[in-house]
Structures are given as structure tokens and as C-alpha cells.
Amino acid sequence: MASPREHHQRPASELDAVIAHQLRTPLSVIRLNLDMLRTEAASILNREHVELMDEIDEATKTIQVYVEDAFRVASLGTPRGVRQPERVNLRVCLEEVIAAYESFITRSILSIERVFPVPDIFLYEDPHFLRVVFDAILSNAVKYSPRGGRIRIAVQEVAGAAEVCFSDEGPGIPEHLIEAVFRPWFRGSNVEQHTEGSGLGLYLASKVMDECIHGDISIHSAAGSGSTICCTLPIYRDTTTSEEEESNMVSAQKSTQDAAS
């Protein structure tokens, strides 16, 4: 049974999600019209006009980042946030998330190093929430990686669990700020002036891991040495017996009993 606090919080989460969702469309329209104006009025725009339009575009992109992350966080408290676990191929799930960043990776001349085990590892989790976590972590790695840098995604089995680690060559995080990384709105002082971000990405990943997935998340980083964020997830092991296998077992047992009698 839900507590009074949960009943009180749920409408607020739904309202936050609705507001964030409704803001998406007008922001997209602003950017689309700005692009059209740039193209169609290029011949009559002077340098000052172009600079003003660039400032509007940058400000709109920043707002979009905040709105998208706020929507994803707020959605955890709505029906969209209900878990629907199923058997998930971890490698395939990671490849789907990586594919969404291919164009940005190409433009930034980044390389992705994949270290995936054979055979594939399977989980029993909600694929939507897995993608939310992996997307938030990869987005962070891509955002803070230097042009021409390398991002390493390594999967291994550790003590019966799957460990997924994302390593980047970004600016890293000073030791005294490590504990603040998973707090909402946190942005390191060494990056906030140079890279767009809402400070909600890793908070979202941590919140989903804590509330929606049976796993842990941790970070290892140092200023100037990049960051490694690891997720530890329980491996799915199919212990059920198929009808055919069960039938064969019953037949074998019956044959043994007949032979003994």
C-alpha cells in the first residue's frame, strides 16, 4: 500500500512530466524557425544579426537539455516509470544506445572501444530503464571527451554479476567532488563554463539504478585523468526446464524404473 507521502508526491511528478513534455514542442519550433530564417534570410543578415541568432540558438539548446533531462526524471514517478522486466541481451542493448550517438561520435572524431564477452550476457530487467541508464552515462562520456578521444565500454562477469564500465578521457572530477556527482544539478567547476549540460544526467542514472533496476552504480575519477562509471547488474540465468526436457527426464526415469522391476 502506498504511503501518504507517495500519494502526495505522485501528482507532482505527473505534473512535472506533463510540463516538461509540453515545453519540448515550442522549443523545437523555435530552433526550426531559427534555422529557416538563417537559410532564407542569409543574404540580408549582417554579422551582428548572425551573432544574435547564434546566441538565441545556444540559449534554446541549453533550455532543451534541461527540459529533456527534467522530463526523464519526472517520468519515473508516472505510469511510464512502471517496470516491465524481460530477458535482455546486454550487448544488443548497449549497441542500440551507442548507435544513437554515431553521428556525434563521427563529427567529434571519437572512437568507441568495445570489450564484450563471448558468449553474450543476459539480464532480466526492463530494457527501457537499462537504456535510460546507459544513455545517461554514454551521453556524459561523449559530452566531456576531447575531440579525437576514446571511450571504452567494457563488460565482464564479476562474482556472478555483470559489470558494465564506461571510461572516457575527459577532464575528470576532483576527489573532493566525487560524492556530489550523483546529486541533481551537479556540474564540476572545471567543465561548467565549457560544456553544455543540466547536471541531471548522472543523477538520473543513479536514481533509475536505485529505484527501477536491481543494481549498483559507482564512479572512479580524478582531475585530469578521465572518469570511469560502472554499473553492476545481476545476470539472468534460465533455471527453468523446457517441456521437452521435462518429458525426456520423465521418460528416462520411467525406463530406469521399468528396468529395475
SSE succession = HHEHHEEHEEHEEH
The outline comes out as globular
Judged by helices, strands and strand pairing, the structural class is alpha+beta
By DSSP, the count of extended strands is 7
CATH superfamily of the largest domain: Histidine kinase-like ATPase, C-terminal domain
Strand content: 15-25%
Task: Report the average pLDDT across residues.
Answer: 78
Give the biggest sheet: 5 strands, mixed
State Rg.
24 Å
Distance between the termini: 56 Å
* CATH topology term of the largest domain: Heat Shock Protein 90
Strand order of the largest sheet: 2-4-5-7-6
Q: What percent of the residues sit in helical stretches (DSSP H or I)? A: 40-55%
Q: Are there runs of 5+ residues with pLDDT below 50, and where? A: 1-12, 241-246
Helix tally equals 7
At the first level of CATH, the class of the largest domain is: Alpha Beta
Structure characteristics:
261 residues, alpha+beta, Heat Shock Protein 90, 2 domains, 5-stranded mixed β-sheet, two-stranded antiparallel sheet, 49% helix
Descriptive notes:
The structure is a single chain. The protein contains 7 helices and 7 strands. It has 261 residues and is an alpha+beta fold. Mean pLDDT is 78; it is low at 1-12 and 241-246.
